[in-house]
Amino acid sequence: MNVARSFNNWRKYRQTVSELGRMSNRELHDLGINRADIETVARAAAR
Questions:
Q1: Which pLDDT does position 22 carry in this prediction?
Q2: What is the 8-class DSSP label of residue 24?
Q3: Which Pfam families does this one have (predicted)?
Q4: What would the mean pLDDT of 13-39 be, rounded to a whole number?
Q5: Would you place residue 1 in the very low, low, confident or very high pLDDT band (cuts 50, 70, 90)?
Q6: Domain segments of the chain: what residues?
Q7: What share of the chain is helix, strand, coil (3-state, %, to 5)?
Q8: CA 21 to CA 13: how far, in whole Å?
Q9: 46: alpha, beta or left? (left if phi > 0; alpha if psi -120 to 50)
Q10: E strand or H helix at 4
């Protein structure tokens, strides 16, 4: 994996964590996500 792709994946991961982290527990629940699962969901989104 090249450096540019790694950086873009990292940025996508951080953006997803940030956006999900700003959501309320109710909004996350509506999406079927627990607050503890945010990092796992973000890793999957960055792939």
A1: 98
A2: -
A3: YjiS-like (PF06568)
A4: 98
A5: low
A6: 3-46
A7: 80, 0, 20
A8: 12
A9: alpha
A10: helix 3-21
